[in-house]
Amino acid sequence: MSELKGNAIFGQSGGPTAVINASAAGVFLEALAHKDVIGTIYGAAHGIRGILEEDFYDISQEDPQEIEYMKTTPSSELGSVRYKLANVEDDDTDYKRLLEVFKKYDIRYFFYNGGNDSMDTCNKISKFMQKSGYECRVMGVPKTIDNDLYGTDHCPGFSSAARYIATATMEVYKDARVYDTGMITVLEVMGRNAGWLTAATALAGAKGCGPDLIYLPEVDFDLEQMLADVKKIFDREKKCIIAVSEGVKTRDGKYIPELVGEVKVDAFGHKQMGGAAAVLAQYLERELKTKVRGIEFSLLQRCAAHCGSKSDVEEACESGREAVRQALAGKTDFMVGVDRVSSKPYQVRYILIPLSEVANTERKIPREWINEAGNGVNQAYIDYALPLIAEDAGQPKEDGLPRFCRLKKIPGRKD
Amino acid sequence: MSELKGNAIFGQSGGPTAVINASAAGVFLEALAHKDVIGTIYGAAHGIRGILEEDFYDISQEDPQEIEYMKTTPSSELGSVRYKLANVEDDDTDYKRLLEVFKKYDIRYFFYNGGNDSMDTCNKISKFMQKSGYECRVMGVPKTIDNDLYGTDHCPGFSSAARYIATATMEVYKDARVYDTGMITVLEVMGRNAGWLTAATALAGAKGCGPDLIYLPEVDFDLEQMLADVKKIFDREKKCIIAVSEGVKTRDGKYIPELVGEVKVDAFGHKQMGGAAAVLAQYLERELKTKVRGIEFSLLQRCAAHCGSKSDVEEACESGREAVRQALAGKTDFMVGVDRVSSKPYQVRYILIPLSEVANTERKIPREWINEAGNGVNQAYIDYALPLIAEDAGQPKEDGLPRFCRLKKIPGRKD
Question: Has the ipTM of the complex gone over 0.90?
Answer without folding.
Answer: yes
